[in-house]
Write a structure and sequence with these properties.
Layout lengths: L3 E5 H7 L6 H20 L2 E2 L8 E6 L4 E6 L6 E2 L5 H39 L6 H31 L4 H13 L8
Antiparallel strand pairs: 1-3, 2-5, 3-4
Helix pairs in contact: 2-3, 2-4, 2-5, 3-4, 4-5
Length: 183
Amino acid sequence: MEGQDMTVLSLFMKDQSANLKPQCFIKIIHNVIESLQSLHTNLITHGNIGSDSIFIVINNKEGHLRSLLGNFTSAELFENQTGQCINAMNSDLMNVRLLCTDLLAKCNLFKLKLSSDDSSYKDTHENVQDYVHKSSNDWETTIALIKEISMKIVHLQKMKKLPQEVIKQLLLLTQSYKTDAIH
């Protein structure tokens, strides 16, 4: 696509690590949950959600990021919402939970890197403490959100909530955060 770059999430986190901001991770997880809602509404399960099956599209002009589900080799289409369908949908949600674990690990690394880089900037930037404090708070907020998503998946599944209800709760949670920026 002209004016846009595309890569898989695993490479994006590796290649763009210097440019990633906490909002990117919120946007990624929000887009994945939206995609899952669309699939499940149509009785389709993905079956393989992970950092190698999520495509990241970056609009170079505006700097906006969008994540899309890909790699549908394990996808299934169900005729009706049977127990087998619900189990497959719950499996998708558990894959989202595993994705959260991967994202949390990266977020914690970026937060640690920001803290260690603080000392190298002290001599050249007067307001670096304010910047690092704000950025650190942004990372903490993002980390807390991703942890909450992960815990909510487990909690709602233990309560025997239908996957569609779990997804609605997750979308409400992610929509309360700003998710427009990439850089």
